[in-house]
User: Fold this.
Amino acid sequence: MRINNIYAYLYCVIQLNIMKARLNITIEEDILKNVKYLAEAQNTSVSELVETYFKNILKKKKTKTLSQLIKELPKPNLEKNFNWKEEYYKAKMKKYGL
Assistant:
């Protein structure tokens, strides 16, 4: 009995957190007919196809690739003739006391 109450509670919580809204769109009849066939072949509805598509395009905008994140990092102000090798050895000598 306790498990049934837990399932009922979870069902209520899930239903309360999911709010759906109606959306009207205008598309060509041929496209709609093909989309309906596609939805039927995938055992889903046209609404679910549209919702899934919207979720995918929103997800893509939120995530950034590693190269995009690196490009956003602040650039250091270094001299044009900065000697990386010399600075590397200075840091090692400072670290290990040589």
